[in-house]
Amino acid sequence: MEIIRHLSNEELTDFTLESNQRTLRSTLEALPDWAQASTERPEEFWQKQRSMIWSRISSPESGSSTRLVRRLPVLAWSTVAALVLLAGLMLDRASVVPPHQAQVDPDHELLVAVERAVHNDGPAALDPAALLAEEMVQDIAARPPIRKKEPTHEN
Amino acid sequence: MDTVLTTALSTPATEKAEEISADRFDEIMRQHQQRVYRVIFLLVRDADTADTLTQECFLRAYQKRASFRGECRIETWILRIAVNLVRDHGKSRRTSFWKRLVGLDNGEADGAESRQFPAPDPSAERALLAREELQAVWKALSSLSPQQRAIFFLRYEEEMPLAQIAQLLQVKIGSVKTQLARATGKLREMKEKQWK
Q1: 3 state SS of B39
Q2: Confidence of residue B156 (pLDDT cuts 50, 70, 90)
Q3: Is B174 a residue whose pLDDT tops 90?
Q4: Is the CB of A64 inside 8 Å of chain B's CB atoms?
Q5: Tag placement on chain B: N or C end, fewer CB within 10 Å?
């Protein structure tokens, strides 16, 4: 019986890569020449590029980042000092007692409102109801008293 | 691919930070300038941008030369700066795409397909042919990530060993191999379509 060994991922990658490289051999071998030919420049180009680099190195602008790094501790301390000052000011303002304001008791306010409502006359819309109630009271008062029916012994 | 697999770099293995004086830096620049420009050019496909980024790369290398501890070749260190600059440039290009979309910027059209190599010198027929071949390779690799393209060019154009690419991009060798397999797979697909 034939035993088939499975390739590991790494072996499979190596196998694929080798196979691709074999297939693309001529292209891959020509690539350095193509790149070389595409980027061929006259010596003046390289000289100019070098002089540009040196001029950028020596220009004050390029040194700005270096100066920034040198000034970083000063900047950091200034920021910390500013933050401390700000925090101090905020704490100072927080500790100042605000001017006294009349304390208002909400329960008391509610009580006053209820009392006012009770003592107020009813709304005009309720006037007919009040009138009706008054008439009913008068009517009841005007009626003769109800006599209790005495039991009869007619039978 | 024997040449690719066996090529070693000629630069000395380490260089201490304190040794990099202005004179030494000029020497380093002369030694690696063309290579840095070539790598950047292959990644951005624009001569002017490659020029600007090469200048920026050496400017940063000079400013940060004190941070170079000699843990890798100076060439690897400079190329790492170059690749990072290209990556940042790609990000700013994507931002400028949105700016153009909302009408804040009137720059040139974005996108890999719209970017073309500069007009070749009429006398340089070899350069023209080379650019055409490179265009085809670029087209095949356009769907890959910038890192995969960088790995591809560093490996096959710069003939850089896998370990050095891993060190440069700060990834594992296994990852470099996987991404190379993917990149070569794309190129193979394109070639096979051409042959059919």
Answers
A1: helix
A2: very high
A3: yes
A4: no
A5: C
Asked whether residue B110 is domain-assigned, the answer is yes
DSSP state of B156: I
Closest C-alpha to B64, from B42, B84, B86 = B84
Number of domain units in chain A: 1
Same domain, B34 and B100: yes
Chain B closest CA to A80's CA: distance in Å?
28
Q: How far is A99 from chain B (nearest CA, A)?
A: 53
CA B136-B140-B144 angle, to 5 degrees, is 140
| Shared-domain flag, residues B134 and B96 | no
pTM of the full structure: 0.60
Question: Is A46 an interface residue toward B (CB < 8 Å)?
Answer: yes
Nearest to B178 by CA among A103, A1, A16, A147: A16
Mean pLDDT, chain A, rounded, equals 77
What residue has token string 């006053």?
A112
Size of interface A-B (CB pairs under 8 A): 112
C-alpha distance from residue B108 to each of A121, B52, B115, B147 (Å)? 83, 17, 9, 24
- A58: helix, strand or coil: helix
What 8-state DSSP symbol labels residue A4? P
Over 60: is that where the pLDDT of B58 sits? yes
How is residue B30 written in tokens? Answer: 């002369």
Kindly tell me if the per-residue pLDDT of B49 is higher than 90: yes
Check CB contact of A82 with chain B, cutoff 8 Å: no
pLDDT over threshold 80, residue A20: yes
- Domain contains A26: yes
CB contact under 8 A, A23 and B185: no
Tens of pLDDT along A58-113? Answer: 886 555 455 555 566 677 788 888 888 888 888 887 766 555 556 667 788 888 88
